[in-house]
Amino acid sequence: MKFEDELLETLDLARIGVLYAPASFKFATWETLLEVCNGCGAAGSWFRPPKRMYGTLIVQACIIHDWMYHEGQTIEDKEEADRVFLNNLQRIISRETKWYKPKKLMRARATLYYLAVYYGGGEAFWTGKNI
């Protein structure tokens, strides 16, 4: 799936309330979304986590997280973006209907991803902000 398709799917899921996203994301221009959002992992980072977890696409949570990091200005905004990221990962996992998916392992990995952005996402959050 191309990134543009993933972004469009994320917008759809956010607009119908399946995933949480701030209003600024839901009503942003397509050009701005393409400029700000890049999927899983910080732009330019040597490490890019996979956009699938046990075969389930999770990039939608990453896209919304990118947006919230871009929009955020305070440490509270960063912490909220990180909590929303975990919440959206959990929502994606809950929607998985395949009986063979290891949901407990997926939830554990979602928590690890959350801890990674909570403790390691500071540089990505503060880049380009002159506060």
Quick summary:
The protein is mainly alpha-helical. It is built from seven helices and two strands, in the order H-H-H-E-E-H-H-H-H. Strands 1-2 form a two-stranded antiparallel ribbon.
Q: How would you explain this protein's 3D organization?
A:
The protein has 131 residues and is mainly alpha-helical. The protein has one domain: Phospholipase A2 (Up-down Bundle). A two-stranded antiparallel ribbon has the order 1-2. The longest helix has 21 residues. The N and C termini lie far apart (37 Å). The model has no long low-confidence stretch (mean pLDDT 93).
Tags for this model:
mainly alpha; about 5% strand; two-stranded antiparallel sheet; about 130 residues; Phospholipase A2; about 60% helix
Order of helices and strands: HHHEEHHHH
Largest sheet data: 2 strands, antiparallel
Provide the low-confidence segments as ranges: none
Q: In total, how many domains does the architecture comprise?
A: 1
Radius of gyration: 14 Å
Name the shape in a single word: globular
Percent range for helical residues? 55-70%
Number of strands: 2
Tell me what portion of residues adopts beta-strand conformation.
under 5%
Which structural class fits the helix and strand makeup?
A: mainly alpha
- If you average the pLDDT, what whole number results? 93
Strand order of the largest sheet: 1-2
Cα end-to-end separation: 37 Å
Write the layout of secondary structure elements.
Layout: H1 3-15, H2 23-26, H3 30-36, E1 52-53, E2 56-57, H4 59-71, H5 75-95, H6 103-120, H7 122-126
Helix pairs in contact: 1-4, 4-5, 5-6
